Amino acid sequence: MKLEGKKIIQLVSDDFEDLELWYPVLRCREEGATVHIVGEKANEEYIGKYGVPIVSDMAFDEVDAEKYDAILVPGGWSPDKLRRYEDVLQMVRILNEQNKPIGQICHAGWVLISAKILDGKTVTSTPGIKDDMENAGATWVNEPVVVDGNLVSSRRPPDLPDYMREFIKVTSEK
């Protein structure tokens, strides 16, 4: 189990891309990680774009990011909501400053843009936010997965196996 003893934050808000949230959660748990679902409120049900629900374990303001080994940001329309919370941006900044893995897929790059951590990084995302990523100072490439230091980025659901292979590898090495 490659992630035994690791603690990972999985951010959530309504309209997450169902596979882009659930697949990483399940893969990390299969590898032995403890994954906490973190939303605006604890014990709140959030609904994905395709109707699959998930219940949060904790609220944004309850999380001590320094006690975590990595963070996952889902895609869908959720990132546009998540980036409006200073607690979310602070979690991402803290993990970035500590060089801990940050996984982002599809539209999740919006959260990293708002956290102002992409300048000089090479990333991928859904092509729909390519300009946003580049305007934030990143070099955007059209690849299934890109690893640049602690950042692991991916484009869309068909890339999930590549994304999680690299996220698990980077997280296990930290």
TrEMBL record:
Q: Which family does it belong to?
A: Belongs to the peptidase C56 family.
Q: What is this protein called?
A: Type 1 glutamine amidotransferase
List where this protein forms a coiled coil.
none
Extract the PROSITE patterns matched here.
PEPTIDASE_C56_PFPI (PS51276)
Keywords (A to Z) from UniProt: Glutamine amidotransferase
Pfam families of this UniProt entry? DJ-1_PfpI
On the tree of life, the source organism's domain of life is Bacteria
Every DJ-1/PfpI domain range: 6-169
Q: Does the keyword Secreted apply?
A: no
